[in-house]
Amino acid sequence: MARVRAVRPPYYVQRVKDFAAFLGRSPDLVQSEDVRGFRLHLASSGAGAPKINATVSALRFFFNVTLDRPDLAKHLTFMHEPRKVPVVLSPEEVARFLEAAPSVKYKAALSVAYGAGLRVSEVVSLKVSDVDSERMMLRIEQGKGRKDRHAMLSPVLLELLRDWYRISRPQGWLFPGLKPASPMTTRQLTRACHAAAHMAEITKRVTPHTLRHSFATHLLEQNIDIRVIQVLLGHAKLETTALYTRVATNTIREVMSPLDRLTPLTPKKNEPRGAPLA
């Protein structure tokens, strides 16, 4: 008899089980006071914003869809999670990092993450046919939000990809995994990223997404319009892209303070005080 592999239940099921354990009775007997009490219980137990928000999302679905009790869902609100300033590498650190990549394959893949500003999932999902050398673009299929878009393909990045293609002749996936029929996994690329950072002696915590952050920040420091960067990153909201203005230090240094544009308010050294206007 064939062995049936256990399927892990959806994440929301575990959150509902946690809620049932807190209640000590069946969740279909829940009252609004129970919902408020569980929300306070999560906060007092030290649960962070990610867990609280995941629980809120799960219980909202449970109350609205499973129990058909939308009156309970209104008592659940998401917890605001302050956005942290992203870690960004300097251009010099990026150069050292890429040179320290474990192989030509990983150097090319990590160069795509930085040179085109792609998410790690978008890098590993690239196919050979997605490289459009005539239009100098990369086609991104079903990126975040299930949207297709185009990313930039610089001449240097194109040469790196051509070097990789000449060496391995990939068919289908641009960066195949251990089995050629499957793409490289995000975990594989993340491990290669950590290895490159270690070899380059970079003490910052570097992930593939750090390269995307660095791409956006360096473009902003080159005075590229933030709306253009928004399109390149595939951000739905401009406010998401605006986060990089907090780490674009070159841009901050080059801005002239309005104080420096003021007419001097103090009299010159040899100018007598109270001099007549005429």
TrEMBL record:
The keyword DNA-binding applies. GO terms for biological process: DNA integration; DNA recombination. It comes from the Bacteria. Residues 84-257 form the Tyr recombinase domain. Belongs to the 'phage' integrase family. It holds the Pfam family Phage_integrase. Residues 1-67 form the Core-binding (CB) domain. One of its GO terms (molecular function) is DNA binding. CDD domains: INT_IntI_C (cd01193). Keywords: DNA integration, DNA recombination, DNA-binding. This is Integrase.
